[in-house]
Design brief:
- It is a single chain.
- This protein has 117 residues and is mainly β.
- The protein is 12% helix and 39% strand.
- A hairpin with a 6-residue loop joins strand 2 and strand 3.
- It has a single domain, classed as Nuclear Transport Factor 2, Chain: A.
- This is YchJ-like middle NTF2-like domain-containing protein.
- It comes from Chaetoceros debilis.
- It holds the Pfam family YchJ_M-like.
């Protein structure tokens, strides 16, 4: 998974790290995704930018379930994470790369907070 993320992230993305080895280790670190189990993913159709056909957006909804590492009070609890992802088409050959995302969640108390700002 880290290699795919690295290969498909646009250099303008705030998460982009020039040193690929450091980036891969960061993506593969223990605990990053260990406390939740993937339940489902829904993606809406791509929306193109009105002024630039090389910019597109996709809205995603991910359902995750807390596992035992979250403690007995949260284990089994499901959360929804939503992201509007921005993609840029560039390069030779032309390909789409992840450039940014606005992430929100349905967790009580932070429903209207952009989590990655």
């Amino acid at each position: 998974m880290p290699q795919h993320i690295i290969e498909t992230t646009h250099p303008t993305c705030r998460d982009y790290i020039k040193d690929k080895e450091v980036w891969a280790k960061d993506l593969n670190r223990d605990g990053m995704f260990d406390s939740y189990e993937f339940v489902s993913l829904e993606a809406e159709p791509q929306i193109f930018d009105a002024e630039d056909e090389n910019i597109g957006y996709i809205d995603f909804k991910v359902n995750l379930r807390a596992n035992a590492s979250n403690g007995p009070h949260l284990e089994g609890h499901e959360i929804v994470v939503r992201e509007r992802s921005k993609f840029i088409r560039s390069g030779k050959p032309l390909s789409w790369s992840y450039a940014a995302g606005e992430v929100t969640s349905d967790v009580a108390g932070i429903e209207d907070v952009q989590l990655n700002s």
